[in-house]
């Protein structure tokens, strides 16, 4: 964080020190937090605006550190990556969320579960086999699970990413490209990695009501997705105006504060059964 200090040098040094002290504190508390179940999973609904029902939920991690308070997920995900704990964290999130999903399985209109995975999960930690174990142990049908990966994740080592995603797909688990449009998007990726779904980033939705540029981009992504027979979800929908515009552009699956913030599983079950 940038601070208004007297001199840049002092400010910079202090920030660097504070940052690394904080990061150290986060990294060292993380293994225990995972083991003790201190990281809570919240669920945000994805709405099928055409049918007016919940199409799915995205699992989002929440960690309240005893001294530091709520830590933003990207910060502890990065700490987990740097300290080598990311595959443990991902497996924890997968297991917890698949278990939380159990009450929904009896529902004939059972929604799907979206779980975020990180770049290191693709390249370390044997994700396909761990995933198979978790599905078996929790009784979660593979067809109900979608793993969300970001475009940048696919840049590092193309061949191993293709291989890992193919192993995941062969179990019946679907793949979504998260934050679509913000990274090194290329149409080539979509067929090369055989993704099922793209999530249009919130940055395109934010100003959709006023920016004709953003409208054009979303319209283009939407028609491309239709041609490729991919589903699209638009993220960060906050107003009915945005929602209506997006629907007209063919973006029927929507996620955002307009429909619901991420909530603990207990609340989610109540809302979904209403
Ligand atoms: P993401 O996957 O793009 O998740 C969407 C983020 O947007 C979430 O932030 C969600 O709370 C927020 N959001 C949803 N609707 C709205 C809206 O209408 N307006 C605004 N302003 N924000 C909205 P969150 O939970 O803070 O997570 C941030 C990022 O951290 C996620 O971005 C994801 O990349 C990462 N993350 C969170 N949980 C996990 C996890 O369990 N594993 C991994 N690998 N990454 C995670
Ligand atoms: Ca996501
Ligand atoms: Ca996203
Ligand atoms: Ca994001």
TrEMBL record:
This is Bifunctional diguanylate cyclase/phosphodiesterase. It comes from the Bacteria. Residues 23-274 form the EAL domain.
